[in-house]
Write a structure and sequence with these properties.
single chain; alpha+beta; four-stranded antiparallel beta sheet; 3 helices
Length: 98
């Protein structure tokens, strides 16, 4: 199992677009079969990042199929138009852990 974690900072004044992005991202869960777990969280006022995605996939190939899916591409395009920073990490989970 692969855990994919992404954090974003957004430009000030993009709150409406931010909510559209985060809601759209959460909406991919159940729509894209490769996405086994999806948690979209908003950062608190004191956080270094504005939002985080914690997601899980069977393996790297499943993550790549998810990234290539047109539904993900559409949501990602909105994010790219409003973000100022992005950080990501992919972690292999020990067998039996999720």
């Amino acid at each position: 199992m692969l855990r994919h974690i992404v954090m974003w900072k957004f430009r000030p004044g993009t709150e409406t677009e931010r909510e559209l992005f985060l809601t759209g991202l959460q909406g991919l869960y159940g729509e894209i079969p490769e996405l086994k777990r999806c948690e979209v969280l908003r950062g608190t006022e004191r956080s270094d990042y504005d939002a985080v995605l914690i997601s899980e996939f069977a393996d790297q190939a499943a993550l790549e199929r998810y990234k290539a899916d047109p539904r993900h591409q559409a949501v990602s395009a909105l994010c790219k138009s409003i973000r100022t920073d992005r950080a990501a990490v992919d972690c292999l989970l020990p067998d039996g852990e999720n």
